[in-house]
Amino acid sequence: MGAVEDGGVRMIDTEAWVLYERSGPIQSALDSDDFRLEKFSFPGPESDELLVEPLFGSWEGNMTHSLQRRPIDICSQRRERRVVIGNGSVLRVLRAGSDVRGIHEGDVGILYGGHVQDEFGYTVLVQGYDAPGTVGVLAKRTKVPARNFLPLPLASNYRLEQWAAFSVRYLTAWSNYRVAIGAYRLQVDAHEDPAPYVLGWGGGSTLAALDLARRAGCRTAMVSGSSERLAELAGLGIVGIDRKSFSDIEYDEARYQRDPEYRAAYRRSERVFLDTVRDWTHGRNAAIVFDYIGAPVFRASVKALARQGVLATAGWLLGMQMTVNRAIECIGRHVHVHSHYIRHGDSPAAMDYAVREGWMPQVSEIYSWEEIGRLARDATAGRLRSYFPVYGVNPI
User: Which Pfam families does the UniProt entry name for this protein (predicted)?
Assistant: First the structure.
């Protein structure tokens, strides 16, 4: 891997897992040859950018979305024939641009993935996902804006693979939790409800948000259908709610209207779920529900809210469109919080808190660089054993 000239532009050659535009009628890149390991070249970094090598990457939901081409086809949206995805990682600096100050060769940090930000520093488009022209971290080398390199705290004793898992899921949870608890406290003071009930379902970001809530004195529970994950939750002091007891909870509005058997099965599962929540909360329902899944559980999530409750979402794992009864939500004084990743300037505070309080993911599943194709298939098929799947890229 090296550098070559292309029409006067210095190009960087590297090895990468490359996603191609759709080559035929098959939609998923995993069911064709549209996702493969090969040589990839990109223009060298500008004066305000860094040439970096990923050490560890975290497999994120948007990577699975990209390969499935749902809910968007990023090659089509970016108008690019092939792209390199991935935005959760630990990076090592290989070279800093001439205008970069305070970052040097050999420095290690995490990637702030918000490539395009609004005037207040909030993410609009993400590197290695929907930001055109960006090269993600499924590459032996890539480039990043220097402003988006977040050096690891000097006091950190955590492993690099933990920071890779932290870089997207935990930063997302930090921002979403702070807005959600702030919204709840605008309506219900701490002396009125000192230990709110906080419920969640989803993956690693949900777990991170619930762990923040637990550390703040909230009573927390998470829904999961995996016995391994339920045991992990118990070890963290979070109540596990077994989804298998209401296995037909996924809501499909069109099918609900036309299929009596499905409607009856859904209603039974919804009733069991809501009874379970009421039993856990002693009849109060949840002050906050972190729903990082989307449309299939949105209806149940809203019904599980207490009065003045907050529904908090970040991302759109399954389904982007939801139907809501405004009157019921207004009467219940429910607040809906929707967030996307984290504001750039809030990231260092989240990292400092993590080091100080031990708020970090436990990584138990690491795939090798050559196993990324298998990792992609495991993620798509729901075979991942961990909330925080990590892969290696370059040697430490």
Answer: ADH_zinc_N
